């Protein structure tokens, strides 16, 4: 009996460890429950509160999920943000000051509170962090009234800043709790959404509007509507419409059903309950991801990030999708994106005789702007538990099927090379095919030009065995330096 109890305890501990993310250099771990989606970078870890172990029937099962985000800052980072020395003792003093104001029913903003100036954290994002206060969202949050409170959550001193607002038909609540340990600051954020609360109201309005239209439907009015649709809009008006659709509006707690608020609060409390701080190590954590279907891990360069989706569907196996790239490059792309050009595209009526030409020109200028800053992109996709008869047929006669697949792909690449234009040109390519009764591998290495001026090398690997299939695409600028260890790992991305 004792042996059984001991075994059960070991299994519980193993399960707990397996469902937790740990960053020893950052000095924390968090129970993520094997999320169906996660994102990791040098100083940020984000994940959904829905597990990849659960089987989903359709996308409806994934509605109203919460996203948890953990950011960490060293004492040196905080000194740059605050302009003064930071330590856990500093945090505790600020906590007590805010708690006193709260007990006195005074507004925390009546006294200087550097820790609460979250816009300063967003300005520091270029150092490998990425907060929800960044860029566009930062501008939205400035229009909202936050609720600031102190208190212990799961035994941790926490200063919590909360936003509750409506954007379009979606109710959003953002909770960010500041906690400190070992002279580091951690931002623990939860983004909750509810897509049902305001959806019914919209449907009612639409129904009323449709009824009114049915009652007042004349040929004259129809002609006016047609004219309005073809009348050109200005880029400014298109921008105004887009900004109106993204407008945020404060919502009061009293106007939200109690069960919805309870769900929101529980999601954030669960984040803090699962968070544990400990003494940091001196060795930085390597950013790496694992694809379970392939059984391979890839260690990424220090300034990269990855986002990974692990989604299990009934009778379809588990689908794995990972996207990785340089955090710095992606931030540069975002910072240099010409959003006015996007609004200009939206403003062009399709009835305009020059519509296609203008859209193409604007697309080219926008794409050129992106390509100037974008050097690398890695995408992997896999699926396990394959039961497809075609896959088994492919492996059953490897020689004949290799010849057929090789002929088909080679012909397609040759045709693509002949169809090259000023936007895309396939300059050269090499292929590799390896078919056996156990597995099949297709390798393609292609050099391409985008918009004439940007040369890329593209590596594609497709492979499958009796149980799983995978695809890997690695795109990099020809003149960009890439860590040799990364390229070596990607060359082995197959069964």
Cα distance spanning the termini: 43 Å
| Overall pLDDT confidence | 83
**What general form does the structure show?**
globular
Query: Can you give the helix content as a percent range?
Result: 25-40%
Q: Which regions have little confidence, pLDDT < 50, spanning 5+ residues?
A: 1-18, 211-218, 221-230
Q: How large is the count of helical segments?
A: 15
Kindly state the number of beta strands. 21
Tell me the strand percentage band.
Answer: 25-35%
Profile the largest sheet.
16 strands, mixed
Gyration radius, in Å? 27 Å
Structural class by helix and strand composition: alpha+beta
Feature tags:
single chain, 495 residues, alpha+beta, 16-stranded mixed beta sheet, three-stranded antiparallel beta sheet, 15 helices, 21 strands, disordered N terminus
Structure description:
The protein is built from 15 helices and 21 strands. Helix 8 crosses helix 11 (339-347) and helix 11 (339-347) runs antiparallel to helix 12 (355-371). Residues 1-18, 211-218 and 221-230 have low confidence and may be disordered. The protein has helices at 2-18, 75-82, 88-103, 118-123, 135-141, 199-215, 219-230, 235-245, 258-274, 327-336, 339-347, 355-371, 389-396, 398-418, 484-491; strands spanning 20-23, 28-31, 37-40, 44-48, 55-56, 67-73, 147-153, 156-167, 170-181, 184-194, 248-250, 275-277, 288-291, 296-299, 304-313, 317-326, 376-383, 424-435, 439-450, 454-465, 469-477. It is globular, with a radius of gyration of 27 Å. With 495 residues, it is of the alpha+beta class. The longest helix has 21 residues, at 398-418. It has a 16-stranded mixed β-sheet that branches. Strands 1-2-12 form a three-stranded antiparallel β-sheet.
């Amino acid at each position: 009996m004792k042996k059984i109890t001991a075994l059960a305890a070991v299994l519980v501990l193993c399960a707990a460890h397996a469902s937790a993310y740990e960053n020893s250099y950052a000095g924390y771990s968090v129970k993520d429950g094997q999320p169906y989606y996660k994102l990791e970078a040098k100083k940020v870890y984000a994940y959904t509160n829905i597990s990849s172990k659960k089987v989903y029937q359709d996308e409806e099962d994934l509605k109203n999920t919460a996203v948890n985000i953990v950011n960490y800052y060293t004492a040196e980072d905080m000194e740059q943000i605050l302009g003064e020395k930071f330590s856990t003792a500093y945090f505790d003093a600020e906590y007590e000051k805010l708690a006193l104001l709260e007990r006195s029913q005074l507004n925390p903003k009546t006294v200087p509170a550097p820790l609460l100036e979250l816009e300063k954290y967003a300005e520091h994002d270029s150092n490998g962090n990425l907060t929800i206060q960044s860029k566009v969202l930062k501008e939205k949050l400035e229009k909202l009234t936050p609720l600031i409170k102190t208190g212990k959550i799961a035994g941790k001193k926490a200063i919590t800043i909360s936003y509750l607002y409506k954007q379009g038909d979606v109710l959003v609540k953002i909770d960010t709790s500041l906690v400190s340990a070992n002279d580091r600051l951690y931002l623990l954020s939860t983004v909750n959404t509810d897509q049902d609360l305001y959806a019914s109201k919209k449907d009612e309005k639409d129904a009323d509007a449709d009824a009114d239209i049915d009652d007042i439907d004349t040929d004259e009015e129809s002609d006016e509507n047609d004219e309005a649709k073809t009348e050109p809009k200005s880029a400014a008006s298109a921008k105004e419409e887009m900004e109106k659709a993204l407008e945020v509006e404060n919502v009061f707690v009293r106007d939200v059903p109690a069960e919805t608020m309870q769900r929101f609060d529980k999601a954030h409390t669960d984040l803090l309950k699962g968070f544990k701080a400990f003494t940091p190590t001196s060795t930085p954590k390597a950013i790496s991801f694992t694809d379970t279907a392939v059984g391979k891990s890839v260690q990424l360069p220090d300034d990269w990030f990855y986002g990974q989706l692990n989604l299990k569907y009934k009778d379809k196996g588990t689908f794995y999708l990972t996207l990785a790239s340089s955090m710095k490059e992606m931030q540069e792309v975002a910072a240099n994106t010409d959003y006015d050009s996007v609004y200009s595209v939206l403003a062009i009526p399709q009835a305009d005789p020059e519509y296609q030409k203008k859209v193409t020109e604007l697309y080219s200028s926008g794409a050129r702007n992106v390509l100037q800053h974008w050097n690398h992109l890695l995408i992997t996709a896999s699926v396990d538990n394959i039961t497809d008869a075609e896959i088994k047929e492919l492996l059953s006669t490897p020689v004949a099927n290799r010849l057929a697949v090789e002929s088909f792909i080679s012909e397609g690449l040759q045709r693509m090379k002949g169809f090259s234009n000023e936007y895309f040109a396939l300059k050269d390519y090499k292929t590799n095919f390896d078919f056996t009764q156990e597995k099949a591998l297709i390798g393609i290495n292609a050099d391409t030009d985008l918009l004439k001026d940007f040369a890329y090398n593209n590596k594609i690997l497709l492979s499958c065995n009796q149980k799983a299939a995978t695809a890997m695409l690695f795109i990099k600028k020809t003149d960009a330096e890439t860590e040799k260890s990364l390229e070596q790992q990607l060359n082995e991305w197959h069964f």
